[in-house]
Amino acid sequence: xxxxxxxxxxxxxxxxxxxxxxxxxxxxxxxxxxxxxxxxxxxxxxxxxxxxxxxxxxxxxxxxxxxxxxxxxxxxxxxxxxxxxxxxxxxxxxxxxxxxxxxxxxxxxxxxxxxxxxxxxxxxxxxxxxxxxxxxxxxxxxxxxxxxxxxxxxxxxxxxxxxxxxxxxxxxxxxxxx
Length: 178
What we know:
By secondary structure, the chain is α/β, with parallel strands linked by helices. The chain has helices at about 5-15, 90-105, 120-130, 165-175; strands at about 35-40, 45-50, 55-60, 60-70, 75-85, 110-115, 130-135, 145-150, 155-160. The longest helix is centred in the middle third of the chain and has 16 residues, at about 90-105. It is globular, with a radius of gyration of 18 Å.
């Protein structure tokens, strides 16, 4: 499908039903779409993650993710507090308390979930779809594929125990670095 055709379809859908219009979040930044927003813990506050970085999570950080989807009779919302393995306890507590504060400010009864890096449920991975977790590692494991980025160059490393599916996933992630 050509980009102009896609854009005309999107414009038509949005003009027909405002439900599909992109909206700004609480800090006046346009989210990934109206249904998905991501914030990173910064001290004792949350900072909105720009759209281009919303699929890039760092193992030393904590994030709050909001996903809203059509429900009957009103929209339903799920909030996730995602904790990286290398995150500190203060950031984990802040992510949880901020998630509860945001959830209490919306209508309905949102679902709240706390998840940890590498233990994400299938529903979370489906919502995020193209999650990239950046890890600081002293060595590379042969069961994983890695994308290594310097200021000027991007390298890929494919472990000897990885599958074809791992290789395809690695290939699909590379465009997010350019």
